[in-house]
Amino acid sequence: MKSPLIEFIDVKKSFGNNHVMQGVNLSIYEDEITVIMGKSGSGKSVLLKHIIGLLQHDSGKVLFRGEEISSMSRKRRIEFKRNFSYMFQENALFDSMNIYENIALPLTETSLFSKQEIKKKVEMRMEQLEIQGTSNKYPAQLSGGMKKRVALARALVTEPSIVLFDEPTTGLDPIRKNGVHSMIKSYQKMFGFTAVIVSHEIPDIFQIAQRVAMIEKGKIIFQGSVDEVMACDLKEVRTFLNGDGDFLEY
């Protein structure tokens, strides 16, 4: 069996008396779409932020290709973070910037590219995501679905090998939700990135997931394929999948 790209080993994280992660063990594999599910406040977004190094764990280990992230030198950590991009829950587009400027932002912040190089990269992503002609528009002028495309274009403009999605379909109607899921699946195949998606869109998200992990009370209670999660007879998993009790997010 192949080694995990990202691995959590008994990871714990608390905020005061709130023990969000209580010994998380999780494996994420390269070139796959892994979906992380769980009820509100279960630690899904906190887990994502540990992957990219935005939060530091209290104990345990987070490994990237077998290397412990917290032990990386400053230079190595900068190199490590270049592998990642993050698509936020509410898109996080800047209203004061036009669409071109929003997409170009991750490139302009680094000072590694000339204006011409940035222009080429941004226009290529805009064409691939079929949002040409929106360069001079502002986020407020776009539909929810178009904003998602812009946010994805910005996430992909740095050519990341791993993209983290935090509730990417929040606020969208069922048709547009399925459209975003299809978009993620299509571009994951096209660009070959590893995707980690926090979602509670059951069963829709299962159409694109290759692996599923479920977090409950600060621990991963299940991880495996979609077929395996559907066949799982663990009470907490069945309750979540059936949308019973307070397991389903709103």
Description:
The chain is α/β, with parallel strands linked by helices. It is 34% helix and 24% strand. It contains eight helices and ten strands. The protein has helices at residues 44-52, 74-81, 99-108, 115-128, 144-156, 174-191, 226-231, 235-242; strands at residues 6-15, 18-28, 33-37, 59-64, 67-68, 84-87, 162-166, 194-198, 211-216, 219-224. The longest helix is centred in the last third of the chain and has 18 residues, at 174-191. It is globular and about 50 Å long.
List keywords for this structure.
single chain; 34% helix; 250 residues; globular; 24% strand; four-stranded antiparallel beta sheet; six-stranded mixed beta sheet; alpha/beta; 8 helices; disordered C terminus
What's the SSE blueprint?
Blueprint: E1 6-15, E2 18-28, E3 33-37, H1 44-52, E4 59-64, E5 67-68, H2 74-81, E6 84-87, H3 99-108, H4 115-128, H5 144-156, E7 162-166, H6 174-191, E8 194-198, E9 211-216, E10 219-224, H7 226-231, H8 235-242
Parallel strand pairs: 3-8, 3-9, 6-7, 7-8
Antiparallel strand pairs: 1-2, 1-4, 4-5, 9-10
